Amino acid sequence: MASALMAGAVLLLAVGAWLWAWRWTGQTIVDGARDRLALYETSLDAAVERFRYLPEFMALTEPVRALLDAPAEEARAAEANAHLLRIARSAGADVLFVMNADGLTLAASNAGEPTSFVGQNYAFRPYYRSAIESGAGRYYAVGATTGKPGYFLASRIDGPLGPLGVAVVKVDLSPLEAEWRRTAEKVALVDQQGVVFLATDPAWLYHPLAPLTAEALHYLEETRKYGSPPQLGPPLTQGSSRRAGLALATLEPAPGRAETLFELAHPLPGHGWRLMLLAPVTRANEMASLAAFSVLVLGLVAFLVSTILGQRRAHARARERAHAELEQRVEERTLALRQAQDGLVQSAKLAGLGQGLAGIAHEMAQPLAAMRVSLASLAHFIGAGDKAKAQGTAEGLAAIADRVEKLAAQLRNFARPDTETPRQVSLQDLAHGALSLIEHRLKAQEIRLERHFPAEPVLVEARPNRLEQVIVNLLANAIDASEEAARHAPGARRIDVVLALEGEEACLRVEDEGSGLGDLPPDRLFEPFFSTKATGRGLGLGLSISRGIMAEHRGQLRLASRAGGGVAAELRLPRLHRENAAR
């Protein structure tokens, strides 16, 4: 009877150990996969966002504008085709093309090729409709003309009387897909209809995760997203489930290849997709089996100890030897289990190394350190009954909190999409906001900043986010120039930001002590994709886009070499008089 009870208890413990080890190991795997999922999202954003400004930039160029003004002139079409081809090659984009307001393609970088977009009408594509209706659109689809998939980023081109057309860049995501495949992980991008369109496993491509509704099939047919009719495979999953609080999915991309995996999904609202990572459960099963086996071994050892002790109770010396031998076995098995547990802990530590996305933490470190010191002082003054010093320390803490809050607010405002209309703003406020965004770079490079601002507000009419983007770009260029000059001639560097009123204009200058322009004509730096920086440190579009933004504000952007070395970047805007601004 006692033996049966012991056997039952050991079995229960083994089952409990299996469940605990599976849950613990599974959670470790899922936590590490979640960190890697964030890195995949970052690589996707990097692959797409480097082309985000191209449609808007295309809309500002003269050949495109000239073609939209006179679409029937063949010479203008030829010039626009060549212009788009140059931009596509410089930027590394797949295809650039321009449509009129009805969706008819007037010019494309692939003009003259057998799969040219020129003359094709893409009004049925959602990216065209979204651009016409809201100003911008993005959509992933298999090309209706080329049969080659890509991500389409579109921007509306406006005229005095309404939309003139739509500028589009087609981004090839196959290099990103190839990069993901080298990781040997199971990663996929899933569209709004639940169809896998990019995956590290080619067998998953163009399979829906679950059977599609009639509405979803109609949408895919109407937009020709995956061909007409849609060229889709059978559903990829046999269903989802949960075990010990963790999500599982059973996939069968081909008959007889069913596999159960941990399922992680992260929404990408900016694209309307889901990013999925599926991790094998093999390691969790192995560790759970090891834990259960260890418990069974320990139970067997305990059972043997009890049996041997009972049999040798009459032989004291022999019983002591047997007991020592069994104790040694118990210690060995316990050590093996402990080593297995230590291995699991180490795996969890290694998984935590993926959490490295804290770029702004250093900017918050100084005020937080000051806050800790102030809190300690506050506690001391309260304990000492010094109300006045406690009050002063509390006010200091509030100021530190305000500083952190203002920095966070400035970052949030700068990142907000530009949907605002022109309004009255202070150039001092915009300059202070831009400086707060790059203050950490100034500190890191040990660059001294001198501000020369008038006491009275300098008012202009502008879109704050777009104008602040120009100021940030000029400051970043000055820091890069100072950093490059410091490599060749070490020493203290200074940047001057000067704001002045000159007649009816407001003038803001950013002056650095870099190597200057040399013999390079200043206007050359405003050419698209021209850059004096090292390869990989920019597309050469910053100044070109900044000049376009200044043109929108009826302003000017100029560059000039300084007499003592370095560059002076100057932006000019029509000023607002205080009496006019108050009306």
CATH superfamily of the largest domain: Histidine kinase-like ATPase, C-terminal domain
The secondary structure category is alpha+beta
The termini sit apart by 98 Å
Quickly count the helices: 15
- Runs in which pLDDT lies below 50 for 5 or more consecutive residues are 340-363
Quaternary structure of the protein? single chain
CATH architecture of the largest domain: 2-Layer Sandwich
> Describe the biggest sheet?
7 strands, mixed
Strand content: 15-25%
Total count of domains: 5
Looking at the structure, the CATH topology of the largest domain is: Heat Shock Protein 90
Amount of helix: 40-55%
Please state the overall shape, judged from the principal axes of the Cα atoms.
Answer: flat
Summarize the structure.
With 583 residues, this protein is an alpha+beta fold. The chain is built from 15 helices and 18 strands.
What would your notes on this structure say?
With 583 residues, the protein is of the alpha+beta class. It folds into five domains: 2-24 and 284-352; 54-171, PAS domain (Beta-Lactamase, 2-Layer Sandwich), CATH 3.30.450.20; 174-280, 2-Layer Sandwich (Beta-Lactamase), CATH 3.30.450; 361-412; 420-581, Heat Shock Protein 90. Helix content is 49%, strand content 21%. It is built from 15 helices and 18 strands. Strands 12, 13, 14, 15, 16, 17 and 18 form a seven-stranded mixed sheet that branches. A six-stranded antiparallel sheet has the order 7-6-11-10-9-8. The chain has a five-stranded antiparallel sheet with strand order 2-1-5-4-3, sandwiched between helices. The N and C termini lie far apart (98 Å).
